[in-house]
Amino acid sequence: MSQMQNDAGIGQVPVTSIFGVNVSKLDMKGTVAVLERAVASKKPHQVITANPIMIMAALESEENMRAMREAELIVPDGAGVVWAAEEFGDPVAERVAGFDLLHELMKRGEELGWTAYLLGAAEEVVQEAASRLQKQYPKVRIVGVRNGYFGAAENAGVIESIRQAQPDLLFVARDAKTQEPWIARHKHELGASVIMGVGGSFDVISGKTKRAPIFMQKLRLEWFYRLAKEPSRLPRMMALPQFMRKVKKAKKSMK
Questions:
Q1: What is the CA radius of gyration of the chain?
Q2: Residue 206 main-chain phi, psi, to 5 deg
Q3: In this structure, what are the phi and psi dihedrals at residue 14, rounded to the nearest 5 degrees?
Q4: DSSP alpha helices (H): ranges in the chain?
Q5: What is the pLDDT of residue 187?
Q6: Of 97, 90, 93, the residue nearest 3 (C-alpha)
Q7: pTM attached to this predicted model
Q8: Band of residue 22 on the pLDDT scale cut at 50, 70, 90
Q9: CA atoms of 118 and 59, how far apart (whole Å)
Q10: To 5 degrees, how large is the angle CA 93–CA 140–CA 25?
Q11: In sequence order, what are the beta bridge partners of 169?
């Protein structure tokens, strides 16, 4: 099931296909190297941090699937995606969590003098996240900060402010239904080289919420920790057993 996905800005990336979604097989180091080339290219690259819920959403929504297929890079963020690749006999190198990738890109940005823009979450959350990131990575210039609460009437203004800032890295934290489709629709207008949806990362960076302990991450139980902390996520989490059943069924049919 291995393929090579080619892009003029980043070169060839080995991928595994999970229900038509091409997920990168690169480890964290390789992923950062690819995105360093993306920044150097000055061309827009959408990075999707895929989990089972997002893949199931793509199977049910044409717009979400289009965003997946048009993304320049999809990394295996969710433990379920790593598991599915193993089940299909075409494993990825490792889980590349979006939260960790954000920090690795900021570290590389320290060395290369990159700029970053933070878009999303509530105003106090994104401001605190920007403040903490700026202290942690002082050589990365944060050229813009904007909360994620805006509608169609404000869309053009938000895009223009980002385009004028021309960040190397644009991190977007919006709700699950709009995050990836919004990036896909506007990536060529935004003037950013790497545009990555980061979900709830700003909440964790700002201190509003805590990430699962390391041992739970290693056991691939980060989803369970988040559910325990936020029971309201239960309806969304119902996609997980559906995804597992779908993988098992597909594996059986392959045999």
A1: 17
A2: -75, -15
A3: -70, 135
A4: 28-41, 52-60, 62-70, 79-87, 98-112, 123-136, 152-165, 179-186, 201-206, 214-218, 222-229, 234-237, 239-254
A5: 97
A6: 90
A7: 0.90
A8: very high
A9: 29
A10: 10
A11: 116, 194
